[in-house]
Amino acid sequence: MASKQKKMTPQQQKYQQLQQKHELKRPVLKNCIKAFWVGGLICTVGQAISYFYIYYFDFTEQNVGNPTVATMVFLSMLLTGFGVYDRLGQFAGAGSAVPVTGFGNAVISAAIEHRTEGFVLGVGGNMFKLAGSVILFGVFSAFVVALIKTLLGMWGVL
Amino acid sequence: MVYIIRIIISVCVTLLISCSQVQTEKDSQLALMKTTNPNPTVTEKNNGQEKVESIEREVESFDEIYDVAVVKGKKETLVVYKVKHMQRFRMKQIEKDLNKILEEKHPKEQFTVSSDYKIFLEAVRLIERKEHGNLSDKQAENRLNEILKMTSDIK
Is residue A27 classed as helix, strand or coil in its secondary structure? Predict the structure, then answer.
């Protein structure tokens, strides 16, 4: 950064100062509060869905996560299609992207974006453009953790 | 857009209203969310009621545990409990300690211990139906065996 400033001409430095003076500050705290509440609300909905599955179906606490995640992703996909989740994303930022619902949003928004390019090369080819990395690193990290757990189990640590 | 939001809200309200319909079995309806502390039960009448009460007292003496349901069958006794939120990191250790104490104090009994919400809910439902007289001793024993099987499946 310092070396960049050294290379700048006096005119450029003056402009930089002017730009810094007029630059709007990001409302970081406000954004964090919004993300916290919206993220919390999404998680509360998820908790309610998991209680629903425990209460009305034969799911235990250990395996209720699977249908809950599937339902949450499906709901966020529907909401993305209706255009509701985009607005929520604009309002809450990471609060709507970090929970698992953000995954559904990433898949469907990419599919909608590329639908004009055709179903195979457009929708099929680009659907996992964003979500593909999530799947890749998710599967890989799960493999590494399982490997570590297996080794620790074999050595008698766990 | 407004219509979609209205539809979502009305669906949520309908679901909430349908969930809050008056039923005779009230405790189990909220067993997942609030403390119920159901009375300890035996599937066969006059078969160790005092024993199950003492088992419940012993389990309740754990500081980490706040809600206990005990059901004693012919062979096995089911002990289900809820662990305080911040103590849930030590779930396995608590189960180990509980098993150890119960085996020490009641060496002749065979215990199945669980902290799973589903098992807790089913135990509360069983206790309620038994108390309301909706289940015979044999039916209660069969249901208990089903719950015990479910418990062993998830371990």
Answer: coil
